[in-house]
Amino acid sequence: IVVAWWYSFFYRIPLVYSEHWDIPLRVKMGLQKKWLLWRIGIKLCSMFAARVIVCSHAMKNVFAEFGFCANAEIIGNVVTADNKNIDDHKRLHQKKIFLQVSSLADAQKNISETLEVIAQVAEKRNDFEFHFLGSGSEIELHRQHASRLGLLNQTVFFHGFVSDEEKRNWYEKCICHVLFSNFEGFSVATADAIYYGLENVIQMYKRKL
Q1: Helix (H, G, I), strand (E, B), or coil: what is residue 156?
Q2: Helix (H) or strand (E) segment spanning residue 104
């Protein structure tokens, strides 16, 4: 940030500030309390920036409400295409495969409620699997929750952190990417899924932002 300010002030190079961290949204929803340093940093960056860019309308509204920037511009998350052919034949699997690619922080990603929904569906049909790709300190808690619901390693599978190549393989095998986040909509994983030709199931915001 200091280097960016230096070039902006002394060399008149416009400073563009792009914020993709979701801390302001977490604070708005009561999911995070301590954020003084972040607030100071965001405020200073916004004050000296020629343009402020955020990734969603929700973030833009929060920036205006907290007094960071009243006219932030929105550019959605994007992905880089690798120009490799997508193997659709991998989706001809005996069971339908659903996928969630994310961290496993429950306050943000709502994994616990996702498991409850999967359990309700699994009571009526057994022709699908749900695979979680991602890690975090709560992964064992989610495995225990899935085990109590009778889902672990039968309907629900937790793979932890995977390589880009393995993630690509799962995108090609699954039929749908699911994100029941508490406040996210168009995530990077959602953009990835669209690139791989997948349907996306995204939950509406629980709270008005």
Answers
A1: strand
A2: none
Task: For residue 82, name the pLDDT band (cuts at 50, 70, 90).
Answer: low
Q: Which residue has the tokens 């009243």?
A: 70
70 token code pair: 């009243």
Could you tell me if 129 and 95 are in contact, meaning their C-beta atoms sit under 8 angstroms apart? yes
pTM, two decimals, is 0.71
Q: Tokens at residue 73, please?
A: 């511009």
Please give the share of the chain, as a percent, with pLDDT higher than 70: 89
The pLDDT of 30-55, averaged and rounded, is 87
Please report which confidence band the pLDDT of residue 208 belongs to, taking 50, 70 and 90 as the band edges.
Answer: very low
CA distance 144 to 152: 8
- DSSP 3-state of 39: helix
DSSP secondary structure, 15-33, as one string: PEEEE---HHHHHHTTS--
Helices (H), the chain: 2-10, 23-28, 36-48, 57-65, 106-109, 111-122, 139-148, 164-173, 188-195
Locus of tokens 């996702």: 114
Residue with tokens 């429950």: 106
Residue 153's region, left for phi above 0, alpha for psi from -120 to 50, else beta, is left
Tokens (6 digits) for 62: 């929060």
pLDDT > 80? residue 91: no
